[in-house]
Amino acid sequence: MAARKPTFILSFDFDGTLVHHDSTPVFHPMLGQMIQQLRNLGAAWVINTGRSLPQTLQGLAQYGIFMEPDYIIAMECDIYKPGLFSKWTDFGPWNKQARKAHERFVKDHQASLKAIREMVETQTQGQFLAGDYGELGIVGSSEEELDMVCSFIDAHIRQFPDIGYHRNGIYLRFAHSAYSKGTALSELARLLGLNASQCFAAGDNLNDLSMLDPRHASMIATPGNGLPVVKAHVQSHGGFVAQRYASEGMIEALTHFFGTAKS
Predict the structure, then answer these.
(1) What is one Pfam family matched by this protein (predicted)?
(2) Which of 22, 122, 179, 181 has the CB geometry, 3.0–4.6 Å to 211, for a possible disulfide?
């Protein structure tokens, strides 16, 4: 963890941004060195991911990233900090609020969710998924098919703005629209006494768009493997589009925003 009160935040998506499964190396060690140098200057290193907390910790170990983040935002929403003996715990009341909001969301929108489920099951080859803990999602058979499903969902959102979802490729997870990578990043900043002007955020996929927003981070970036729509979004908001993939692209991005860090 950072040795002193953070003065700025470095928020990275995990898959496709910090690591790239088809690259060699998957995670460039120079990026780790740069992050550590910036932490010495007051940065809080945050992983902001759609993975669950256990999946995130497993991924760090799998790819040999042995630095412990200062905070993890998991499932595109839940904020965690390291606890005693490295046990991760909720940071602030946000996670509890998010869970209650999701329960209300599911209860309040049974009709819309039923209509969406029927559409998926009768008009597509995709699957509507309902988990044991109230989580709801869709797996499309192709991105084009999920595009069509999202258009149908968006029609419901126009009537009920609190209906939200996180999308990554052919995978979609429903969520209350007030709880996303972006709003979680802003809540973390608030808890640390910071604001969007002191936040850097980077991501490559659709579920990263909420944090690649000046309302949540004034410094935004995407790697060379970012989706075209993500690159266009970052460019339109004055952000940085790297040439290289994932961690090597993040080296470019940190150099662009922070120069060469010196402890």
Answers:
(1) Hydrolase_3
(2) 181
Question: Buried b / exposed e across 207-230, counting CB within 10 Å, b at 16+?
Answer: bbbbbbbeebbbbbbbbbbbbeeb
Rounded Cα distance, 109 and 63, in Å: 40
Q: Which SS3 state, helix, strand or coil, does residue 246 take? A: helix
Q: How many CB atoms lie within 10 A of CB 109?
A: 19
Amino acid at 160: F
Residues 138-151 pLDDT 10s: 999 999 999 999 99
Distance CA 220, CA 174 (A): 25
d(CA 39, CA 33): 10
Per-residue pLDDT at 45: 98
Residue 22 DSSP one-character state: T
Last residue of a domain, one of 176, 207, 222: 176
